[in-house]
Automatic annotation (TrEMBL):
<keyword id="KW-0560">Oxidoreductase</keyword>
<keyword id="KW-0408">Iron</keyword>
<keyword id="KW-0001">2Fe-2S</keyword>
<dbReference type="InterPro" id="IPR036922">
    <property type="entry name" value="Rieske_2Fe-2S_sf"/>
</dbReference>
<feature type="region of interest" description="Disordered">
    <location>
        <begin position="334"/>
        <end position="353"/>
    </location>
</feature>
<feature type="domain" description="Rieske">
    <location>
        <begin position="23"/>
        <end position="127"/>
    </location>
</feature>
<dbReference type="GO" id="GO:0051537">
    <property type="term" value="F:2 iron, 2 sulfur cluster binding"/>
</dbReference>
<keyword id="KW-0479">Metal-binding</keyword>
<protein>
    <submittedName>
        <fullName>3-phenylpropionate dioxygenase</fullName>
    </submittedName>
</protein>
<keyword id="KW-0223">Dioxygenase</keyword>
<dbReference type="Pfam" id="PF19112">
    <property type="entry name" value="VanA_C"/>
</dbReference>
<dbReference type="GO" id="GO:0004497">
    <property type="term" value="F:monooxygenase activity"/>
</dbReference>
<dbReference type="GO" id="GO:0046872">
    <property type="term" value="F:metal ion binding"/>
</dbReference>
<dbReference type="InterPro" id="IPR044043">
    <property type="entry name" value="VanA_C_cat"/>
</dbReference>
<dbReference type="Pfam" id="PF00355">
    <property type="entry name" value="Rieske"/>
</dbReference>
<dbReference type="GO" id="GO:0051213">
    <property type="term" value="F:dioxygenase activity"/>
</dbReference>
<dbReference type="InterPro" id="IPR050584">
    <property type="entry name" value="Cholesterol_7-desaturase"/>
</dbReference>
């Protein structure tokens, strides 16, 4: 990848805008058209994405190395972008390939623009965002449900006007399903009282009810495998077609300290005609219901004050939230001190890289 722009961030700034030295979901793949460019803001940084003539996907910091003008306003030239301000051409690796105003100047041939490693998964673009000490991509184990060929999924993408920490903590709070989503088609059942426990895994931890399973939003697994994601399962009524319960892989990516890009893959393990039925039902009936549930989360989180977590009174149901906060605070402090390495290969579960 290209050089990282020097940014000395405090632990609080890292917590607000996102941990570095790991992979993130950036945007749906179809947002980057062939022959065009797409501008996004992620982790408090502006980026431009484009596809080269052969379809190769590229992502550059949206900053011309000459005067800092946005490359996203420039011209797509197949394998490079020409800045609209002075015509400086930058290729997909971040290298300056031409300075039309002064051919042969010392900018040419230098790699001056950060260009993160990318891959596409489940209809989304993933990028590794490192810091100066850790520019090379960390080992990554992609979510199992998104690489299993027997599993069919749909990506739901949205941008919420809420801090990243609230979006992630919402996923580690299964009990809200029995209250906020109690009138939904999939979370109407079960008791409104529960006890929870944390159960360690080789890639993170489960936060789960000890006295109920397969009735409501009864468990969630937080996975840290070079990319942070959660896996959970919610029961489906028979009217939802074949396949049993449906699963969700969820990710949250900070846009800045105030807003978050959320990614939810709804999935079921189905094949043959059952797969066709499930996909048909999803598009014609279930998708609207799922968006209704997501809207309930969005409205609640966007209505919360940004300092709401400074005056809380937590109880046993919040153990998953507390665990996540402690983990992220520790990592942010290490990264602010320049101590946090990229995940080692040993930290990625075997067989999933």
């Amino acid at each position: 990848m290209g050089p990282m722009v020097k940014r000395q961030l405090s632990a609080d700034q890292i917590l607000a805008t996102g941990l570095r030295n790991q992979w993130y979901a950036i945007c749906p793949s179809d947002m980057v058209p062939q022959g065009g460019v797409h501008r996004v803001r992620r982790l408090g940084i502006d980026w431009v994405l484009f596809r080269e003539s052969d379809g190769t996907l590229r992502m550059l910091e949206d900053r011309c190395p000459h005067r800092g003008a946005p490359l996203s306003q420039g011209q797509h030239l197949g394998s490079k972008i020409a800045c609209a301000y002075h015509g400086v051409q930058v290729d997909g690796t971040g290298k300056v390939v031409s300075v039309p105003g002064l051919p042969g100047c010392n900018l040419e041939g230098k790699t001056l623009v950060p260009s993160p490693p990318l891959q596409e998964l489940g209809g989304a673009i993933l990028a590794y965002i490192g810091d100066e000490q850790h520019p090379d991509p960390a080992p990554v184990a992609l979510p199992d449900p998104l690489v299993d060929e027997e599993i069919s999924s749909f990506l739901c993408y949205a941008e919420w006007d809420t801090p990243w920490r609230y979006a992630m903590e919402n996923l580690l709070d299964p009990m809200h399903g029995a209250f906020l989503h109690r009138e939904s088609h999939s979370m109407f059942g079960g008791d409104t009282e529960a006890r929870f426990r944390i159960r360690e895994t080789d890639r993170g931890f489960f936060f789960e009810k000890t006295d109920q399973r397969g009735v409501n939003f009864d468990w969630v697994e937080f996975c840290r495998t070079g990319i942070d994601w959660v896996d959970l399962s919610i029961p489906y009524p028979p009217t939802a077609g074949p396949g049993g319960s449906f699963g969700i892989v969820g990710m949250g990516t900070p846009i800045d300290e105030h807003t978050t890009a959320v990614f939810f893959w709804r999935y079921r393990k189905v094949s043959g005609w059952e797969r066709d039925v499930w996909r048909f039902l999803y598009r014609t009936k279930l998708e609207a219901r799922h968006w209704h549930v997501l809207e309930q989360d969005r409205v609640m989180l966007e209505a919360m004050a940004e300092d709401a977590d400074q005056a809380e009174n937590l109880y046993q149901h919040d153990l998953g939230v507390v665990r996540l906060r402690r983990l992220y605070k520790k990592l942010a402090e290490e990264q602010a001190a320049g101590l946090a390495p990229s995940p080692s290969p040993e930290s990625v579960p075997a067989g999933r890289a």
